[in-house]
Amino acid sequence: MEVDSPRSYYEGDRTMKARQNGIVQPLLTDLYQITMAYAYWKAEKIKDHAIFDLFFRKSPFQGEFTIFAGLEECLKFLQNFHYSDSDIEYLRTTLPSSIEPDFYHYLRHLTAKDVKVYAVEEGSVVFPRIPLLRVEGPLIVVQLLETTMLTLVNYASLMATNAARYRIAAGKQMTLLEFGLRRAQGPDGGLSASKYAYIGGFDGTSNVLAGKLFNIPVRGTHAHSYITSFTDFAELRTTKLKDCSSGQEVDLVVQCQEYREQLSHLLLNTDPNEASNGELAAMISFAIAFPQGFMALVDTYDVLRSGLLNFCAVALALNSLGYKAIGIRIDSGDLAYLSCKAREFFEIVAARYNLPWFAKLTIVASNDINEDTILSLNEQGHKIDCFGIGTHLVTCQRQPALGCVYKMVEINNKPKIKLSQDVAKVTMPGRKNVFRLYSADGHALIDLLQRSDEPEPKVGEKVLCRHPFQESKRAYVVPSRVEPLYKLYWSDGKLTAPLPDLQQVRQRVQDSLKTLRQDHKRNLNPTPYKVSVSKDLYSFMHDLWLQSAPIGELS
Ligand SMILES: Nc1ncnc2c1ncn2[C@@H]1O[C@H](COP(=O)(O)OP(=O)(O)OP(=O)(O)O)[C@@H](O)[C@H]1O
Ligand SMILES: O=P(O)(O)OC[C@H]1O[C@H](OP(=O)(O)OP(=O)(O)O)[C@H](O)[C@@H]1O
Ligand SMILES: O=C(O)c1cccnc1
Ligand SMILES: [Mg+2]
Q1: Which ligand is the nearest neighbour of the Cα of 183?
Q2: What is the pTM of this model?
Q3: CA 235 to ligand 3 center in whole angstroms
Q4: 390 CB less than 6 Å from ligand 3?
Q5: What is the CATH number of domain 2-165+403-430+485-522?
Q6: What residue's CA is closest to ligand 3, atom 8?
Q7: What is the DSSP letter of 531?
Q8: N or C: which end of the chain has fewer CB within 10 A?
Q9: What is the structure's pLDDT at 143?
């Protein structure tokens, strides 16, 4: 089977297949996975069975939580895992000529049917050292999955976490739009950003392809170029708009100029001629194109003296024909101050013309917004209803990568440990299960890693939770609820659990965040959430550590 083109993967109905990115294929990996596969094969390790854990060591953005995302794409990758004839041909011409032809035959027939994947539910809040996926199966196959799985989880989780943090900073009521495609790390980065920003809590995207592929609401305003493309009224080919009820055509230019005259006295007490005619002409033409959805960018020349005046004039003219404008976008200057002034203007107009809805027009703000800008705007007080956020969101400027790793923890039933000078980097050996223990008030208290053959912790029963590395740190917990974090998602070449749609994953993010105490989520110096190991796992891990670490000699 040849790997389909990206387009054909994306098109069609909204089944799993329709949502797979076509560049995700077995060759989207690091060369060393394939050279290791050959060396394993040569060493007659094709029957070896391994377990790998995929986890990160530190939550991003100086925070203490992470949103797990990318699982559906990992599973889809497993469904399609298969080297095509052209993949094999490419490898034949690329790898050393010493490679035995039988290896290519072996590779050509490799699938993920003997792999098992246990994972945390996509959209869950997760913490350092918790394996997000436990991948079990033939050593060669599970090794070959490493890089692709990591690339599918790392950016997805980073992006969903970033978006969730912006949502926390902005509050529930704020509309958040993702505007990042033009600044994203390439087309695929841009598409992933739109998808995972939505999962993380954004309301929509300007990215039209993301809208089509993932059924995400698409939204937008217009650019400065639209405003600057007009110089005067003389350029307007059409100036007339039909009255909504009578159907009679009315000249908008005349009406808008009249309203602008009135408004300049009402709002500014200045000469209306200070406002730009080019800007007014642009707004009129946009209003004629979109009378039911008029939205205008007001900062091209001067927000207060030109943009707002022109916008209000067009909005009043539209109103006289039975249309309600939507609002404005401000893309430069002091967003707190200008949004307050804009709201003040809208309220004055609402009172003067007896149009209560005018006071509630939408104010969109954009321009290099990040989490800190949102928090600062909140402190200052502002009247913004919607943030359009691009660069900082999609490039995750504050931390451009999440450090998920994929580490072997068991081979042929033998536990494996990776030692490090840095204690936090020592891996936790063996096949493990994870449980989240909740307090009586519904908050997540602690995550507990156990060896997979230990009995599960029980509600109402005391369980000893140990710090994985510091002997003196331990606590008894009597959980009010115990949540097993793993589900078996992939076995015998098939999905073994239903996959939620994007909306459900998005909801899962919010539900899961609700179980997290506020102090773990705060922006400044958040409290670390506790991730612990059972007594058994602690001893098992530390015994293996001692067995595996050579004793040095001082001389
Ligand atoms: N009230 C505010 N408090 C904190 N940050 C703000 C506030 N208003 C705007 N910002 C942020 O300040 C930065 C202003 O950017 P910049 O210095 O480029 O000014 P600008 O208004 O875009 O200028 P220009 O008109 O030249 O385009 C942006 O990142 C914006 O999000
Ligand atoms: O600032 P960001 O968070 O990245 O948000 C997206 C930015 O992209 C647009 O600017 P651009 O200058 O590209 O075009 P414009 O003419 O529409 O402003 C938009 O006006 C925003 O400022
Ligand atoms: O629709 C918008 O206003 C928009 C879209 C992309 C980038 N900046 C703004
Ligand atoms: Mg801009």
Answers
A1: 2
A2: 0.95
A3: 25
A4: yes
A5: 3.20.140.10
A6: 179
A7: E
A8: C
A9: 98
| Number of Cα atoms under 13 Å in the Cβ half of residue 418 | 13
For residue 333, the ligand closest to its alpha carbon is 1
Q: How far apart are CA 430 and CA 421, in angstroms?
A: 21
Q: Could you tell me the CATH superfamily of domain 221-384?
A: Aldolase class I (3.20.20.70)
Q: Which ligand is nearest to the CA of 375?
A: 1
Q: Which of 225, 286, 366 to mutate to test the pocket of ligand 3 (most atoms within 8 A of CB)?
A: 366
Nearest to 236 by CA among 287, 274, 271: 287
Is there an atom of ligand 1 within 6 Å of 263 CB? no
**Domain extent listing, the chain:** 2-165+403-430+485-522, 221-384
Q: Is 387 in the pocket of ligand 2 (CB under 6 A)?
A: no
List pLDDT tens digits, range 147-177: 999 999 999 999 999 999 999 999 999 999 9
- Three-point CA angle 18, 6, 158, nearest 5°: 75
Show the tokens assigned to 7.
């387009």
Q: How far apart are CA 396 and CA 392, in angstroms?
A: 5
Of 8-12, 26-30, 128-132, 313-317, the least confident: 8-12
Rounded to whole angstroms, the Cα distance separating 229 from 224 reads: 9
